[in-house]
Automatic annotation (TrEMBL):
Gene3D superfamilies: Aldehyde oxidase/xanthine dehydrogenase, a/b hammerhead, Aldehyde oxidase/xanthine dehydrogenase, molybdopterin binding domain. This is Carbon monoxide dehydrogenase. The keyword Oxidoreductase applies. SUPFAM superfamilies: CO dehydrogenase molybdoprotein N-domain-like (SSF54665), Molybdenum cofactor-binding domain (SSF56003). The lineage of its organism: Bacteria, Pseudomonadati, Pseudomonadota, Alphaproteobacteria, Acetobacterales.
Length: 776
């Protein structure tokens, strides 16, 4: 963590640990935000996609003649026109349990031989206006021979199921195993008790506020593509577009991202539409814009979750965990997204451990293709699920064995003296006090006052239950990340980095880090993050690692600024560089009161003119921070619900969280991130489920059919921090963006199970399901 001088009053307002308001908000509230669909490039035309109405079928022909002749139409394109482009495919080097690599699937921009889900793009139309493009798209005729479809992973993997690909036997692209199967089975064989639950991790529509949108441009003079698009990181997306899809050098592609209205993993990678607008822009010599409509988003945006899991926990006679085992089917959808294979494999393996000293674990997952929308990362991406499985197992095991569930957790918690703790998951936990966090959460939730609240609920004829979500998640390890500081001529300082804010509030938090380290006035700090031309590295935002990555990169660049500043201040103050000290934004000659502020020094270097070779001509600094280990945010959520036995409606009455996020740079932003994750977890637990018909039609394709949590579904959330600073990154931060989901899924579902007398029901706990469970 950077040194701070609390004698500087600005650090008490804008430094690390202060609840500084988001700098982004005034801009957005004044309507000055610029999302992709807000942009209009001179001369732009419109693209509309033509999508398959069938979940599975052989393409016999695509008739485009009528569409091409319609008013305003500039072009109609099919797969034959897009043959020059490379595929989108999984980027993960995962292997089957027999050591062979996963079976990859190459997805072109448009379906060529077969359609494999409702919404699979088969053509696109470009016209002068959006209305003209839509009219022409409706005139494109598809000759498709429908084939049987399959939408459930376990059904698709069964003998005799319809096959999506000739080169994927049994529709299984990956038969994954992590752990020592023999040792785990031996532990289960000698266990005094085994608890097993069949758990469905329901499929989710991401439902970001901003639908996907893109503008493709072709710079003929430079021979260069420009793509304006919402993303989670322009550096990685540029590399994917250039290397894998467009097949051009990376300097021939520029990605620009403005404001982004949510993503949660979904906008991280390339989609078919991006190659389409760039192809048309190059061919037509005009910018081409595409913006999805909400109905299209339901079909074409990658979905989240979707696993069928048999989870088992083995205990000895004293209640100590001997082993945990997951056997799952993972639904990949019709194609493999870049990271779709990760959730039920690597992330299950890392996160089923949670904060318990379970000595053995086994994760076996079959990833299966089906005739559904592809699945990719969604807030937590396998981390919430791992914690959910473990917490449901613990609550059920406690009931089955007559033990107190809190005591059972504490008995099996990793103890503080065990750190660093090498887990069988392969992780090395560096810090934490899990039992203390649990105790603090119980106190904050007034656990001992529950009996009176339950009696009051009983008197009103409603059922009351309480649940604990004790969690630990493994963040993504920070990748190489750029840290650049530019002292601008207008007296501001620009931070350039490769993570990307799509709602989190990076500008404020990063400015706090820089302000605390260098004393640069908070209001003078700007952030540049969405232009690939400015980047030499960048891991993007995902996996709760942004502050650990960009924060560390900013600190590293700031150290360079200080060293350059010592040399420059020595010249300006006529002293030896080694006699210059730096404290709270000021360079001074040791033992004297002579000095110069960092901003004044930067301005003086710009004004002085030619300088001696040994004196830097600016304080600008650029560095690339090498990746640090993943971190382990943890905490405990406590939820109380009431259930109306006549209707099955669940109402969340009380909700408290205590979290260890390490060093917190901005508690207001962190609490907001926790609230968002909790609400998305509640959405999955109570409301959200993607449903398909037997022939693969999406039954939940609008907000009339698909439930999202609303404000009146939610209580106030109690939020407290119990930090143990992380020891493996310079800020001491642990990440917080996805932790809300990791705690809320088990807390809510454990509370519902408690109210139902220990019955297990799957998410979402809709009134219908709860009502049915109450009747056996």
């Amino acid at each position: 963590m950077p040194d701070t001088n609390l004698a500087d009053p600005t650090l008490l307002k804008f430094g690390i640990g202060q609840p500084v308001k988001r700098q982004e908000d005034p801009i957005l509230l004044r309507g000055q935000g610029r999302y992709t669909d807000d942009m209009a490039v001179e001369g732009q035309v419109w693209c509309v996609m033509v999508r398959s109405p069938y979940a599975h079928g052989v393409i016999r022909g695509i008739s485009v003649d009528e569409a091409r002749g319609m008013p305003g139409v500039l072009g109609v394109f099919t797969a034959a026109d897009m043959a020059e482009y490379g595929p989108m495919r999984s980027v993960l080097p995962l292997k089957n349990k027999d050591g062979t690599p996963l079976i990859n699937i190459d997805r072109g921009p448009l379906a060529a031989d077969r359609v494999r889900f409702v919404g699979d793009p088969v053509a696109f139309v470009v016209a002068e206006t959006k209305a003209q493009a839509k009219d022409a798209a409706e005139a494109v005729e598809m000759d498709i021979d429908a084939l049987p479809a399959v939408t459930e992973a376990s059904v698709a993997a069964a003998p005799g199921a319809p096959l999506l690909y000739d080169h994927v036997p049994g529709n299984v692209v990956l038969d994954f195993r992590f752990g020592d199967a023999e040792k785990v089975e031996a532990a289960f064989a000698k266990a005094a008790h085994v608890t097993t639950l069949n758990i469905r991790n329901n499929r989710i529509v991401v439902a970001a506020m901003e639908p996907r949108s893109a503008i493709g441009e072709w710079d003929a003079a430079e021979g260069r593509y420009v793509l304006r698009v919402g993303s989670q990181g322009v550096f990685g997306l540029r590399n994917q577009m250039a290397n894998d899809i467009l097949k051009v050098p990376v300097d021939k592609v520029r990605i620009i991202t403005g404001n982004v209205g949510g993503s949660f993993g979904m906008k991280a990678s390339a989609y078919p539409e991006y190659a389409c607008v760039l192809h048309a822009a190059k061919l037509l010599g005009r910018p081409v814009k595409w913006t999805d409509e909400r109905s299209g988003s339901f079909l074409s945006d990658c979905h989240g979750r979707d696993h069928e899991t048999e989870a088992s926990l083995a205990l000895d006679g004293d209640g100590r965990f001997l082993a945990v085992r997951l056997r799952s089917y993972g639904n990949m959808g019709a194609y493999l997204s870049t990271v779709g294979n990760l959730m039920g494999t690597g992330n299950f393996s890392k996160n089923i451990q949670s904060n318990y000293a379970t000595p053995l674990l086994l994760v076996e997952t079959k990833n299966v293709v089906t005739n559904t929308t592809p699945v990719s990362a969604y807030r937590g991406a396998g981390r919430p699920e791992g914690n959910y499985f473990m917490e449901r197992l613990i609550e059920t095991a406690a009931r089955e064995t007559g033990r107190d569930a809190i005591a059972l957790r504490k008995l099996n918690h990793i103890k503080p003296e065990a750190f660093p703790f090498s887990a069988p998951s392969g992780s090395v936990y560096d810090s934490g006090d899990f039992s203390a966090v649990l105790d603090r959460a119980l106190e904050a939730a007034d656990w001992n006052g529950y009996a009176a609240r339950k009696a009051e609920s009983d008197a009103r004829g409603v059922l009351r239950g309480r649940g604990i979500g004790n969690f630990l998640e493994c963040t993504a390890p920070p990748m190489k990340e750029q840290g650049e500081l530019v002292f601008e001529a207008d007296g501001t300082v620009t931070i350039v980095t490769g993570t990307l804010d799509y709602g989190q509030g990076h500008w404020s938090a990063f400015a706090q880090v820089l302000h605390s380290k260098l004393g640069v006035p908070f209001e003078k700090i700007r952030l540049m993050q969405g232009d690939s031309d400015r980047l030499v590295a960048g891991g993007g935002t995902g996996g709760s690692k942004s502050l650990m990555a960009s924060g560390a990169a900013i600190l590293q660049a700031a150290d360079i600024v200080i060293e350059k500043g010592r040399a420059a201040a020595g010249y300006v103050l006529e002293a030896a560089a080694e006699d210059i000290e730096f404290t709270a934004g000021r360079f001074s000659i040791a033992g004297t009161d002579r000095g110069i502020g960092i901003m004044e020094l930067a301005a003086k270097l710009r004004a002085i003119g030619p300088l001696p070779q040994e004196v830097p001509n600016s304080l600008d600094a650029q560095t690339v921070y090498d990746q640090a280990p993943m971190a382990y945010p943890n905490g405990c959520h406590v939820c109380e619900v009431e259930i109306d036995p006549d209707t099955g409606i669940v109402r969340i009455d009380r909700y408290v969280t205590v979290n260890d996020f390490g060093v917190i740079v901005n508690p207001m932003l962190v609490e907001g991130q926790a609230h968002g994750g909790i609400v998305q977890g509640i959405g999955q637990a109570l409301h959200e489920r993607v449903a398909y018909s037997e022939d693969g039609q999406l039954l939940t394709g609008t907000y009339m059919d698909y439930g999202l949590p609303r404000a009146d579904d939610l209580p106030s959330f109690g939020f407290e921090s119990a930090p143990s600073p992380c020891t493996t990154n310079p800020l001491g931060a642990k990440g917080c963006g996805e932790a809300g989901c990791a705690g809320s899924l088990p807390a809510v579902m454990n509370a519902i199970s408690d109210a139902l007398g220990g019955r297990h029901i799957d998410m979402p706990a809709t009134p219908e399901r709860v009502w049915a469970a109450l009747r056996g």
